[in-house]
Design brief:
Largest sheet: 5 strands, parallel
Number of helices: 17
Radius of gyration: 26 Å
Strand content: 5-15%
Mean pLDDT: 91
Low-confidence stretches: none
Strand order of the largest sheet: 2-3-4-1-5
Length: about 350
């Protein structure tokens, strides 16, 4: 059966273990959390030596995995077999291996917990093997979250840790770290270690603990562009150029693109009411006044020019166009185009 991440984890916490788990999909975070939980909690520490086996897909074949799965536990209620990076099992989808897997799934050993951590892709749901796992195992298929889903994920993750956060801090974490949930969780966990009991997460805590320069970061660059602060924008661009590893151009262009597409949607909207503007901003509704201030400068034609310039910069940053232009020059060029009017060509 197909299950959700939450339903699987809830049952595991109640010590309700299934004979077979097949965890697949693009988002490895959920796969890691479940397989790690089973590895850490299915057995007592003294039981693991004889009853827990962790394998890696590139090192084993299906027959070896099932041989381990068919072993009875020694002085324990269950045995655990975890196959990490299961997508690398060389013979996994070969005809003979499929027959072996299907036979085991028909009658799995009840005392074994067999886990396949099949990352970054999924089985073809139309084929027999996928159907067999779906019908006879606990199956989870994960998908990458969209960027606009990340703030809600951050908020829920903090709630699970009984920690409150300001909307600004949530947005900073979402934008600066991006949609890599494993990295997000790791950075948040490190941040929480710095908090005092009962302290909430605010912008200051994020800036001090997530490796963001207080003065020179993408949020301050966005603020400078909103306020048309040319001097501040150029200082930040110079800092980014001097520290490229901490400030890679590709994600920064993506965040600038998000800013100006939101401004374009606001500027183009027929309904300019506060409620509709907040709806268009979604998780950034708390920035409404800043965005409304920016609309004084950025007209629809200007925003169209900016979005075109950002698309061109994106192609250059990925080496598709532009030759050997440096990241610093790519960013400097697009910032100039954002802050200055495009010169008009005189008719001859």
């Amino acid at each position: 059966m197909a299950h959700t991440f939450e339903s699987i984890l809830d049952k595991l916490k109640k010590k309700e273990f299934a004979p077979v788990y097949f965890l697949q999909g693009e988002e490895s975070y959920y796969i890691d959390v479940i397989s790690d939980y089973i590895e850490e909690h299915a057995l007592l520490e003294h039981e693991k030596g004889f009853n827990q086996v962790v394998m890696y897909g590139k090192d084993v074949d299906v027959a070896t995995i099932l041989l381990q799965a068919k072993r009875f536990p020694m002085m324990a209620e269950r045995s655990v077999v975890i196959v990490k990076e299961a997508q690398s099992i060389a013979d996994f989808e070969k005809e003979e291996s499929i027959k072996l897997l299907e036979a085991y799934l028909q009658n799995p050993l009840p005392s074994t917990v067999l886990v396949f951590a099949y990352k970054y892709k999924s089985l073809d749901g139309r084929k027999a093997l996928a159907k067999a796992f779906s019908q006879r195992a606990v199956m989870l298929t994960t998908k990458k979250l969209y960027d606009n889903q990340i703030p809600a994920w951050v908020t829920n993750y903090l709630k699970s840790k009984n920690v409150k956060a300001t909307p600004q801090a949530v947005q900073q974490l979402s934008e600066f770290i991006g949609s890599d949930l494993s990295r997000l969780a790791n950075e948040i966990d490190k941040l929480l270690l710095s908090l005092k009991p009962g302290q909430s997460v605010d912008e200051k805590a994020v800036l001090e603990n997530v490796g963001i320069s207080k003065e020179y970061n993408i949020f301050e660059l966005q603020d400078a562009l909103i306020k048309q602060d040319v001097l501040k924008a150029n200082r930040i661009v110079n800092y980014f150029e001097a520290n490229p590893k901490s400030n890679p151009v590709i994600p920064n262009i993506g965040l600038l693109f998000s800013l100006f597409t939101k401004l374009l949607s606001m500027q183009s909207a027929a309904d300019k009411s506060e409620a509709n503007m907040k709806k268009l901003l979604g998780g950034q509704a708390w920035k409404l006044k800043e965005y409304q201030f920016a609309l004084r400068y950025y007209t629809v034609p200007k925003l169209a020019e900016i979005i075109k310039a950002l698309r061109e910069a994106d192609l250059k940053s990925k080496g598709i166009t532009g030759g050997d232009i440096s990241e610093g020059d790519i960013l400097r060029e697009v910032i100039y185009k954002i802050l200055h009017p495009v010169p008009k060509v005189m008719a001859v």
